[in-house]
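Let's practice the habit of predicting before peeking. Look at the sequence and jot down your guess about where helices and strands might fall. Then scroll down.
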Amino acid sequence: MAEEQNQVMTPDDVAEAQFQIQKLYAKDVSFECPNAPKIFQESGQADVKMSLAQRVDDLGEGVHEVVLTVTVTATIGEKTAYLAEVAQAGIFMISGFNEKAAHAVMNTMCPSIMFPYARRAISELVSEGGFPPLTLQPVNFEQLYAQRMQEIAQQQSGKSDPKQGNGDATVTEFPAEN
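Done guessing? Here is the structure:
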């Protein structure tokens, strides 16, 4: 089994590997402005944070639904200015890849395709909510995936910090540009 996981794809394997976008769609969209209208009278720069989460569901026969959830929260002081969340989904046909390569495709290529759609939707929600335009910077999903795989490997080897959790979360947080 260890040999199967370490196999490199041959040119014949690559010829059989197939990736196809079957459908892209907004699965869930939400905008909340819990402190309106008073929040519009607040002074100061908003602290904007973005978090990402991803879920993959196997639909059978090499077809997968991948859902990328982008959540943006802006606060001014202790008050929430807004919370915008978009669950951008796609149905992808991924076949002919070995298990490791298919996992990488679902966690790098699929979210990279969907993120621009979610970014545009978030930007529109924020603007239509009465706030200054928000431009989310591109995300390097390959780097995030590599970091996550390294964390999992460290946890499995017993070298991880127990405070880091059990590895089930797929959420990444970082400041957003506004």
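How did you do? The chain has one domain: 2-158.
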